Amino acid sequence: MSENVLPQDVFEDYGGEEDRLYSYSALMGVFSLIFAVFLLVARGVGRSIPERVSAKDIALLGVATHKLSLMGAQDAVTSPLRAPFTKLQEKKSPKKVDEKPRGEGLRRSIGELLTCHFCLGTWVASFFTYGLILAPRFTRLIATVFAVITISDHLHQTYKILMKRA
């Protein structure tokens, strides 16, 4: 038996979250559109997509993505970028804030994306990867900056722990 599903019935059994699902769909559409534009630009400027990416580049972009997505999602200094989509819950330290998404629909979904370092990491990793194809020297330079910051942060934390033991 074939069931006729009307467009308004697609999300009917998903707990009344239709607006959020439409917003998530819009964000996925934007993500896909950016990927398609990247492919067109790469083709237009004669850049081929490599068969594989070197382990060094994967490690560099991975560490840089980790740092940049954490900074984007939690650092106080990047809060002006999140503020239109979030509300401040608590300032945990001079450098870190706790925010929650605000509003409804697309505004809330963007707030969820911007406050989740795992979610934001997907976008950051994509942009770094696109940059590696389109502008490898520049992308490696920027990624190196964030990788060095990551190493520095870990050394600061290690130092702090060792000083508490002393």
Describe this structure in a few short sentences.
By secondary structure, this protein is mainly α.
Contiguous low-pLDDT stretches (5 residues minimum) are: none
Residue-averaged pLDDT: 92
Shape: flat
Question: What structural class is derived from the secondary structure elements?
Answer: mainly alpha
Describe the structure.
With 166 residues, this protein is mainly alpha-helical. It has one domain (9-46, 53-165). Helix content is 66%, strand content 7%. It has six helices and two strands. Strands 1-2 form a two-stranded antiparallel ribbon. Strand 1 (86-91) and strand 2 (97-101) form a beta hairpin. Helix 1 (18-44) runs parallel beside helix 5 (117-134) and helix 5 packs antiparallel against helix 6.
Strands, helices and their partners?
Blueprint lengths: L17 H27 L10 H20 L4 H4 L3 E6 L5 E5 L3 H11 L1 H18 L1 H30 L1
Antiparallel strand pairs: 1-2
Helix pairs in contact: 1-4, 1-5, 2-5, 2-6, 5-6
